[in-house]
Design goal:
The complex is a heterodimer.
Chain A: E1 2-3, H1 7-19, H2 21-26, E2 32-39, E3 45-54, E4 57-67, H3 71-74, E5 82-89, H4 90-98, H5 103-107, E6 113-116, H6 118-123, H7 125-136, E7 140-141
Parallel strand pairs in A: 1-7, 2-5
Antiparallel strand pairs in A: 2-3, 3-4, 5-6
Chain B: E1 22-25, H1 33-38, E2 48-52, H2 55-59, H3 62-71, E3 76-81, H4 90-102, E4 107-112, H5 114-129, E5 138-139, E6 149-153, E7 165-170, E8 175-180, E9 188-191, H6 201-220, H7 226-248, H8 254-272, H9 277-289, H10 293-322, H11 331-348, H12 364-375, H13 389-399
The chains are: A alpha/beta, B alpha/beta.
């Protein structure tokens, strides 16, 4: 089974986004780079992923995993070229992906930070919601311990 | 460095400020609307109007004043819907949308408070694109421009006349559907003091405190920026100076006119610099226990300010000046004086201090239910202090 926040999981998301008819329709407003930092994975690693979209097409997706606490990830300055950067723990991101906590609730929790222009993010809420739904539909393992 | 607002670093990496609504203020402004619409290129042909209001506003004779203003004009008020409930409701929206379709409506006149204006926005969505309110729940789910809504507020607080939001209650789920889209900004907001002349003092107090909540939350939220800060600060000052007088003295008075302007300014501020935990709690209390929105905000406001004090002492200290706090002192002392000034204004305008005074049970079960519902409110993400669930629960307990 795919591991949550692994490179293989990212590749699977990209594949499903490409094939999903609803995302093809709703995702057209998704533009720019979105960065996610996920700390303290079950294998003792911090992770950083980034997605770059143009008119809803994923042009690029990057993955980095380093032993926690990884300064390269945690101390990376925010770039004005990004649409947003979300930062949270692996545990909280897992709960959101499993549907145990709504994204709205997660956003108000101390363990979840969002940087960027929230007004601009709000304009993309519809495609972001579809993106999240497609992502949550992928069966993944959360309690892995081996490296990935 | 500025003596009142200071010289803080810019708090956002980039800023988007948007306000497309035309604001028309004036004593007797209602009378000139047909002429002003005729010379507006986008309104000159939208002559099939629907007046959306509620029973109380109609009974006060305000709907009749609107009808008279349009009587000798090219604009025909084809149907009046006065069944809007105290809290905008999915069924009311659907019922009014059916009427709009039957009468080929292309202009909506929303005469009332927040519920009426939110209803009119949602009705216009359905009249333009069909479907149900739930189809458009969330941010930016409305596909394009809607038929124009002209908002004529009859209260001094909601700000809905200048916001991109429609809040519609779904009785089945006990939830409030939040529809947010730049297409929901009303085409125009008409501020005519005649429309608030007969508003009961109690509602002036509750809706005025709603406006104060908008300005204080907009000034201190995580997304605050200088343009909204300017509007929020001035709105706070105008409310502090005029609310008590506006409560006491009915009529198209200067105090009530200033409250109208302040409420609209606070509305512009919070639609660009969002509200926070006060609204998260108030939305939950409103949905669960049917407490008037302005009153629900008024009760939570000072408790949330104390909760947020560690994160926004600087903002509250500045707002203390707007709230007429005379003394100087440390930032923390001024911030606490600002909270005391809010409590004092509430006391002078007879606004209850706790939810248990307005029908909410003072029980642990109620506190838990309010907290759980508040945690699902998006506005909580913009609150300056990000607390744990237990901290929010403790805050809610204090408000009961």
């Amino acid at each position: 089974m795919l591991k949550f926040y692994s490179k293989a999981w990212l590749d699977e998301i990209a594949k499903r986004l490409e094939a999903d008819a609803r995302f093809a329709q709703e995702g057209k407003k998704l533009n720019g780079t979105f960065v996610f930092r996920v700390y303290d994975g079950p294998d003792g690693k911090d992770r950083r992923t980034s997605w770059t979209f143009k008119n809803g097409k994923a042009l690029d997706w990057k993955y980095l995993a380093l032993p926690a606490p990884a300064d390269d990830i945690r101390k990376e300055p925010y770039s004005g070229n990004w649409i947003m950067r979300a930062t949270s723990t692996f545990d909280l991101m897992s709960k959101v992906n499993r549907g145990e906590i709504s994204p709205t609730r997660a956003m108000s929790m101390p363990q979840y930070q969002i940087e960027g222009n929230k007004s601009l993010i709000m304009t993309m809420m519809k495609p972001i919601t579809v993106w999240n739904e497609i992502t949550a539909g992928i069966e993944v393992a959360y309690d892995f311990t081996e490296d990935d | 460095m500025g003596w009142i607002n200071g010289n803080h670093p810019i708090s956002r990496p980039d800023i988007l400020f948007f306000m497309p609504t035309e604001i028309k203020f004036g004593f007797g402004k209602l009378q000139s609307l047909p002429t002003e619409f005729q010379i507006a290129p986008d309104l000159s042909q939208t002559t099939h109007a629907m007046l959306i209001t509620d029973k109380g506003v109609a009974a006060a004779g305000l709907a009749e004043k609107v009808k008279q203003a349009f009587a000798e004009s090219d604009y025909e008020i084809r149907v009046v819907y006065d069944e809007t409930p105290a809290e905008s409701d999915v069924n009311a929206v659907k019922q009014a949308a059916r009427l709009a379709a039957e009468h080929d409506i292309n202009l909506f006149l929303a005469l009332g408070g927040g519920s009426v204006m939110d209803t009119a926005k949602a009705v216009s969505i359905l009249a333009t694109y069909g479907g149900e309110p739930g189809d458009y729940e969330g941010g930016f789910m409305v596909p394009g421009p809607i038929k124009p809504v002209v908002a004529i507020p009859t209260t001094v607080g909601t700000g809905s006349e200048v916001t991109l939001v429609s809040m519609v209650k779904d009785a089945e789920s006990h939830r409030k559907l939040l529809i947010s889209s730049p297409f929901l900004y009303p085409r125009a907001a008409v501020l005519d003091p005649e429309m608030v002349a007969t508003l009961p003092g109690k509602l002036v107090a509750w809706t005025g405190m709603d406006a104060l909540t908008h300005s204080i939350e907009a000034y201190t939220c995580t997304e605050h920026e200088p343009i909204s800060e300017a509007l929020a600060f001035r709105a706070t000052e105008m409310i502090a100076d005029n609310l008590e007088k506006a409560v006491i003295e009915a009529g198209p008075t200067e105090a009530r006119a200033k409250m109208q302007l302040a409420a609209t300014m606070a509305g512009i501020a919070f639609t660009n610099s969002p509200v926070g935990a006060v609204h998260a709690i108030a939305h939950a209390v409103g949905a669960l226990y049917h407490v008037h929105h302005g009153l629900a905000n008024a009760i939570a406001l000072p408790f949330v300010m104390e909760y947020n004090l560690s994160e926004c002492a600087t903002g509250y200290a500045a707002l203390a000046k707007a709230m007429n706090v005379a003394e100087n002192g440390s930032e923390e002392a001024l911030a606490k004086a600002c909270i005391a000034a809010v409590r004092n204004l509430k006391s002078r305008t007879d606004v209850p201090t706790h939810y248990s005074q307005v029908g909410v049970p003072k029980t642990e079960e109620a506190a838990q239910k309010i907290t759980q519902a508040a945690m699902e409110e998006l506005c909580l993400a913009f609150n300056p202090r990000k607390g744990t669930e237990e901290e929010l629960l403790e805050l809610v307990r204090q408000t009961l």
